[in-house]
Each structure stands twice: as C-alpha cells, then as structure tokens.
Amino acid sequence: MSVAAAPDSAARMTLAIRRPAKPSFYLIAALCAATMALMSAPLVLSFLASIKGAAEASGTPPTYLPHTFSAANYLKVINYQAGLLTYLANSGLVALMTIVACVALAAPAGYGLARFRLPGREIAFLVMPAPMMIPYQALLTPLYLDFAKLGLVNSRVGLAIVHTILQLPFSVYLMRASFEAIPREIEEAATMDGCSAWANFVHVFLPLAAPGLVTVALFAFLTSWNEFLAALIFMNREFSFTVPILLVSVRTGDHGAVDWGALQASIVISVAPCLAVYLSLHRYYVSGLLSGAIK
C-alpha cells in the first residue's frame, strides 16, 4: 500500500507545481513590490545624491541619476570637525547604555507585572505608560537644570539616562506582554522542581522571552540613535556631538547655502547601522511585537 501511495503523492506534487498561480497571487506580489519600491526610494535617491558633485547635487532642476561620480561628500562627512568616528562612537556608546538600561529595568518590571498578584497591579500598569502621552520636549528644561547640578551635561551617561526615560514605559509594556504569553504550566513545572521566583525569571522566563528582549533592545537602539533634540540640548561641545547633530551641522555649505551632497551622504551613513541592525534582528522583532497577541 505504501508502494502504491508513493506514485500518487508524487503525481499530486507534480500537479501542484504545474498548477498556474491564481490572479490574486500576482496582485499581492505586485502590491508588495510596489510597497518595497516606495519605501526604498528615499534611501536610493539619497545615495544617488550623495555621490554627485557639489554643483550637480544643488542644481535646478534636480537630476535623479548622477552624471559624474564623486566621493567628495563622504570625505567631507568623514573629516568634518572632530571626525565621523568620534560622532559614531558617541552615538554607539549612548545607544549601548540605553539598551542595557532599558533591558535591565524593563525585564524585571514586566515580569513582576505579568506574574505576581500585586495589589493595584493593573492600575500601576495603566499609569506606567502615561508619561508617553507627555511631549518629552516639555521635560528637557527641568532635566537639563537637574543634570547641570549633577555634572551630567555633555556626558554620554546623562544622555543615555534621558533616552532611557523616553523609552522605558514602552519597553515595560512590551516585556509584560512577552512574559504573559509564556504558558503558566512551564512556571508551575519549574516551581515544582524547586526553582525560586528569581530562578524562574533568570533560567526559564528570560530565555523564552528572548524575542521580546530583542525587540526592546531594537527599539531602544533606534530611539537613541535617531534622537536629536535632547542630544542638541545636553551635548553642546564638539567632541560630544552625536550623529543626528552631525546631520544638521554638515549641511552648511558656502555662504550659508545647504550642501545637499554632504547632507545626503551623512543621511546614508546614519541609516546604514539602523538598517543593518534591523535586518539582522527582524525575525525576533516581529515575534516580539506579536507576543501576547493570541491567547
């Protein structure tokens, strides 16, 4: 019987391969291709503008494809003021400290809100994201005055604290959803084996909530790397600038005109790390966002 079933299954597989695709498949594929082209167009146009000469990049009417290729814009960005490596190092270090702080604070908070029957737990969870409704620009002046007294102005640690404050409520929200998605049977089995609450958290829940942790880290990185206003206010020395401040500074050309080529080159350089991090972690990012969506 198994011998007779093998040719039938092979025939069905052959028919499935030869069966023409439905028109809806081509429509969905066309929509996906159009969406990808639309979303990638700004980055492609920025790259094409970055390899133009200064005159062509600021020419009117603009041209989409460069007539000549030039690396002058990238050389200007690399050698601008303190140097591109200094600004990349500042942004990278601030982003790393923000990631560590968000993960270290949001994971225990999310675990406690998800797994412990605390009095007023739901009220606390509703109040915690409330600061997200307050424009963070309104908090920068009092934070600056406090940080000036503590000596945290022009400090990477101070800027990382600000970025952590901005990102932490959303991080706690994500981590609670990730921990709630883990079945209680796993927790009960670990408890029966003698695990304490802390051992459960470290050895059971954290590995299972890895997609949520990666999502928190990714959001913290993107928020810190792209944040401009707090970096502009708290970092006012040349050697403490971050990449977003570089974008604003490098665009000034001769006689106050905008140097479009250098601006587009700095945009490409600043987007590249974000794109690389997202593409390497996008699988965890999607699953982490959907944690707790289905019960």
Quick summary:
This protein has 295 residues and is an all-alpha fold.
Give a structural overview.
The protein is mainly alpha-helical and 295 residues long. It has two domains: 2-72, no CATH class; 74-289, MetI-like (MetI-like fold), CATH 1.10.3720. The chain is built from 14 helices and no strands. It has helices at residues 2-18, 23-50, 54-57, 72-78, 84-115, 121-127, 137-150, 156-180, 184-192, 197-208, 210-226, 229-234, 243-250, 260-289. Helix 4 crosses helix 14, helix 5 runs parallel beside helix 8 (156-180) and helix 11 packs antiparallel against helix 14 (260-289). The longest helix has 32 residues, at 84-115.
List keywords for this structure.
single chain; 295 residues; mainly alpha; MetI-like fold; 2 domains; 14 helices
